[in-house]
Amino acid sequence: PTPPKPPLYYPAPPLSIPSGSPTPTMGFAQLVIGPAGSGKSTYCSGLYQHCETVGRRIHMVNLDPAAEHFSYPVSTDIRELISLDDVMEELGMGPNGGLIYCMEHLEDNLDDWLDEQLENYLDDDYLVFDCPGQIELFTHVPVLHNFVEYLKRKNFTVCAVYLLDSQFVSDVTKYISGCMASLSAMIQLELPHINILSKMDLVSNKKDVEDYLNPEAQVLLSQLNRQMAPRFHKLNKALAELVDDYNMVNFIPLDLRKESSIQYVLSNIDNCIQYGEDADVKVRDFIPEEDD
């Protein structure tokens, strides 16, 4: 018999606390990642506005040393430590090398600068980290992985929120590319992981995107083989089976015009990191609106 597929997300394991030990201070965090232009800052802005509307407090943290403008209040900003403009001017680096330098400088100052910043937050505070869009940071450069390990040592429960532009998922080859990038981030960061298709409000034909939310392997394989030369058929088969067999890469569509869509995404993330368990939050109790 075919084994059951794993769930869409992987909840964080419960903390093991020895008997008689005091309960550790713990916070919650989203690490918002994804390629440049995928809508990370727009997502953070929409999330902040939604939480403000429903009376929920969250804190926005900017980890992008190249950021210039924000449509949400930033409680902690990496540019107070280092900025990309200063690095490019003083060290003569380009934008890509300069950004890696900035993030490595942050890594070197986790126990000093970031420790001091985190002291400003209370127990159980909810932080949202808006990260740079340079794909190397969450695929193979260890900076964000080490940042995540630091947060875990501080007893934060963290969820990676990976955004992919829904307009990017317009055909099967782009979908497979997006899946592989997301899977690479999942392996690198070793975190509970939620994948989001952003900018759904800009998609003219939502049926084209919905076909890729829970695709069948045989359908993917057939489409790949039609678009690619015969010498790639074995590779296509392996990729389609990887996506299907493990079911580790699924996407939740997000339309920021709809409060119900934002709430559904947030409920999935909260459930993933076990936020609000005392309030008995259950994702399955929420049914998102269907498009007309």
TrEMBL record:
Signal peptide: none annotated. InterPro entries: Gpn (IPR004130), Gpn3 (IPR030228), P-loop_NTPase (IPR027417). Keywords: GTP-binding, Hydrolase, Nucleotide-binding. CDD domains: GPN3 (cd17872). GO terms for molecular function: GTP binding; GTPase activity. Binds to RNA polymerase II (RNAPII). Belongs to the GPN-loop GTPase family. Small GTPase required for proper nuclear import of RNA polymerase II and III (RNAPII and RNAPIII). May act at an RNAP assembly step prior to nuclear import. This is GPN-loop GTPase 3.
